[in-house]
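1st attempt posting a full record on here, be nice pls
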Amino acid sequence: MIPKKQKAIYAISLAASLIIAIQVIIIAFTGDAACLNKGCEVLESLTTIPPLYYNLLGLSYFQTVFWLFFLLRKQPALSIDGPRILLITGLAVEGVLLGYQIFVAQTFCSYCLIIFTFVVLLNFLYGRQQIITGTAVVVAINLFFSLLSFDPSLLLTSRKMDLNTGTYGTRTCSNPAKELYLFFSANCPHCKTVMKALEGCNSCKFHFNPIEKLKSLELDGIEANDSYSPEVNRLLLALLEINTIPVLIEKKPSGFSVIKGEKKIISHIEQFCYQTEHLLYFESSEIPEDEDVSVYGEEGECSMTIECDDDEVK
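the predicted structure (as tokens):
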């Protein structure tokens, strides 16, 4: 290999290692990963292992690339090209993650794309044959991703999930008149305003369904569940073609009503959760069919993929 390209591979693998190491430190001390956009939080909420472990795997990969190329720099050609296999393996993994962002999460993680770029550059520097092989691998992976169905309703049905699967906790005062599911984010100021309206006791049973993992919920009287899945909440909102929060889902005998936006939700709570004439329907919490859903909304919402600043609250 040309010495200049070899040095470039050293530099790129070390630079990637440094960035990931900084990310590991940030996660270790703050519990949250640093990212340039909301897409990172979306991806994190859909993973089965904590982001710290993913970053440690990435750090191990780039360090392996660096040391393998360094140790083999003066060795004659081997019968098995270890560096080529290692680089193409990394590209295959990143190709899967890219396909997942495009076809499943439907949002991009800026940090993930930076790491993907590092892996692409390493393969590019290894030679023309590696470029051709790597391109074929990434295209093939994403082509098959595009042929698979990731419809949210199918995903929810196949996993036998319902509204309660995504419930972080519930709160009931006494004799609940309605059963309501609040979909929210801890970082959304409009959601915080809705939460503030729930500080007093009322006559509704509330299920709190966050779109990401919560450390805690600052609201008295919450009866927390042992486990819950934010992924279910995101999939359900995707099924309803909703990409903003807060969202309130009310169970009715004929189906579900969906109320969107801070002011509309607070108005609904004030109107129906401080009286006891209404009946509570506990029979089913299955995912609603489209024909059984009524949607009401207005402004006072945060995007699920774009940061919603406190200045936007009016």
